[in-house]
Amino acid sequence: MLLKTVFLLVLVAQVLMLDNGLLRTPPMGWLAWERFRCNTNCDEDPKNCISERLFMEMADRLAQDGWRDLGYIYLNIDDCWIGGRDANGRLVPDPKRFPHGIAFLADYAHSLGLKLGIYEDIGNLTCMGYPGTTLDKVVQDAWTFAEWKVDMLKLDACFSTAKERATGYPKMAAALNVTGRPIAFSCSWPAYEGGLPPNVNYTRLAEICNLWRNYDDVQDSWGSVLSILDWFAEHQDVLQPVAGPGHWNDPDMLIIGNFGLSLDQARAQMALWTMLAAPLFMSTDLRTISAQNMDILQNPLMIKINQDPLGIQGRRIRKEKFYIEVFMRPLSNEASALVFFSRRTDMPYHYRCSLSMLNFNRSLTYEAEDVYSGDVITGLREETDFTVIINPSGVVMWYLYPIKNLEMSQ
Ligand SMILES: *[C@@H]1O[C@H](CO)[C@@H](O)[C@H](O)[C@H]1NC(C)=O
Ligand SMILES: *[C@@H]1O[C@H](CO)[C@@H](O)[C@H](O)[C@H]1NC(C)=O
Ligand SMILES: *[C@@H]1O[C@H](CO)[C@@H](O)[C@H](O)[C@H]1NC(C)=O
Ligand SMILES: *[C@@H]1O[C@H](CO)[C@@H](O)[C@H](O)[C@H]1NC(C)=O
Q1: d(CA 175, CA 341)
Q2: C-alpha 387 – ligand 2 centre gap (Å)
Q3: Given the CA of residue 15, which atom of ligand 1 is nearest to it?
Q4: Does 94 participate in catalysis according to the annotation?
Q5: Residue 279 CA to ligand 1 centre (angstroms)
Q6: Ranges of the chain whose pLDDT falls below 50
Q7: What is the pTM of this model?
Q8: What local confidence, expressed as pLDDT, does residue 234 receive?
Q9: Rounded to the nearest 5°, which phi and psi values hold at 174?
Q10: Are strands 82-85 and 91-93 parallel, antiparallel or unpaired?
Q11: Helices (H), strands (E): how many in the chain?
Q12: pLDDT value of residue 408
């Protein structure tokens, strides 16, 4: 009887999730906005303006520089691509900046083993003032995106009312489904409702969207990264349980490789976003990124943790008075990821800790691999004291697993 009940509950839970089969792990790729914004000045800045040239050059980099093979497959357009609507009301891209059209760009991405994402807005206008997808245009625009062979839609919500959003997001989810094309659906809806219940119903959202922006846009600064992290950690009791395969919280893009972060801060954003089971959308110039920043973004163990098949979001489990925090994310095969994070501004801090302090309570022997240095720390039992040395605004990240399990799998 108990078994039967559990089985039924599982079935019900599955039926209630958005059922397009997409994004069983957080999406990875590249998104134009944070780095390239609404630069439409192709006359003076042809290399960096929002244009098919920019997306094709990023596609080439994704395919040729190892990104695609590590999972960074989405090439995503943001605002400022639209030229208007034609006589039939159909969206058309800016003819000067996208002379070959979006279907051409999608074909190009697909020919390189990538996927193409596009952007619209469930309001009168997009955030930058281009034609929006008003409620009467939802079905037509869904068909247009499907015909272009687009693979993801980010639907923003500037210039819309709460009522339009409550109608528009479910309507778009249904319209995308009717096209028959699998199109991952990224919703900015919760960010426009304050990101929290009762204004946001996350159960409902998971039935409609594959990922959602909960909070403010990331900007190119450490302060911005910290403010986003703080909001997600502060509200983790609400946010942590609602993430899972096919439906993710999105704390916004990775700004690694740009101008606002030190090397330690870049490592910290990558580690902390991975703990949040966040989508990994880079927004940086892949044509000029440094080897050091590439190493951070292409760390194979980091990506394995981000893409863990259980898809359980991590939590902040310690917040010390002396500005050290610890995050923990449970992973498959009884492994976990730990991030020791310093918000200090003085010098590398020697943080004394033990697994029992981190709520580990099974009498197993563990081994930890330092995700950035590759060092292996072995013979850890719950009562073993250890010290990690954490740089100011930096992290130490561990992949931790019971040794017994390791022996079994070898
Ligand atoms: C549409 O929804 C149905 C039922 O939820 C699902 O089985 C199907 O895979 C969906 N199709 C697409 C293209 O999302
Ligand atoms: C959208 O445009 C309509 C028609 O011009 C206007 O009545 C409405 O107030 C606008 N909505 C928003 C949220 O700006
Ligand atoms: C949230 O949405 C779910 C699924 O649609 C629904 O069952 C539930 O009643 C909603 N909760 C609230 C508080 O409205
Ligand atoms: C061990 O830790 C888990 C997870 O933190 C907790 O649910 C469980 O109650 C703990 N068991 C004991 C015996 O303390």
Answers
A1: 43
A2: 59
A3: 5
A4: no
A5: 22
A6: 1-3, 5-15, 405-406, 410
A7: 0.95
A8: 98
A9: -65, -40
A10: antiparallel
A11: 14, 18
A12: 53
Going by C-alpha positions, the residue among 187, 137, 179, 129 that lies closest to residue 158 is: 129
User: What pLDDT is recorded for position 404?
Assistant: 72
Q: State yes or no: is 141 an active-site residue.
A: no
The residue annotated as part of the active site, out of 156, 250, 252, 308, is 156
d(Cα 196, Cα 208) in Å, to the nearest integer?
17
CB 237 within 8 A of CB 217: no
251-291 tens-digit pLDDT: 999 999 999 999 999 999 999 999 999 999 999 999 999 99
**Quick one: how far is CA 342 from the chain centroid?**
23
Asked if residue 17 has its Cβ within 6 Å of ligand 3, the reply is: no
The pLDDT value recorded for residue 19 is: 86
Decide if 103 contacts 138 (C-beta within 8 A): no
Within 8-112, strands assigned E span 28-31, 74-76, 82-85, 91-93
Q: How many CB atoms lie within 10 A of CB 206?
A: 20
Q: How far is the CA of 163 from the centre of ligand 2 (A)?
A: 12
Q: Is 223 close to ligand 1, i.e. is its CB under 6 Å away? A: no
